[in-house]
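Researcher: Predict the fold of Toxin-antitoxin system HicB family antitoxin.
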Amino acid sequence: MSSKPKKAYPLRLDPEIYAALERWAADEFRSVNAHMEYLLREALRKAGRLKGRPAPPGEADE
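Model: Structure tokens for Toxin-antitoxin system HicB family antitoxin follow.
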């Protein structure tokens, strides 16, 4: 991971969505914030949207 400063961003979520993320994050031994960042990074990677990190062949459509 990078050591660049992180961008703070206020986010409003439906309480039901937050509760589901909280359970999922706990299952993965991550904080909710770290798990949300992981999920977003994976989605961006699969879509080929991360700079310098193209999606592996066949994953961009999933």
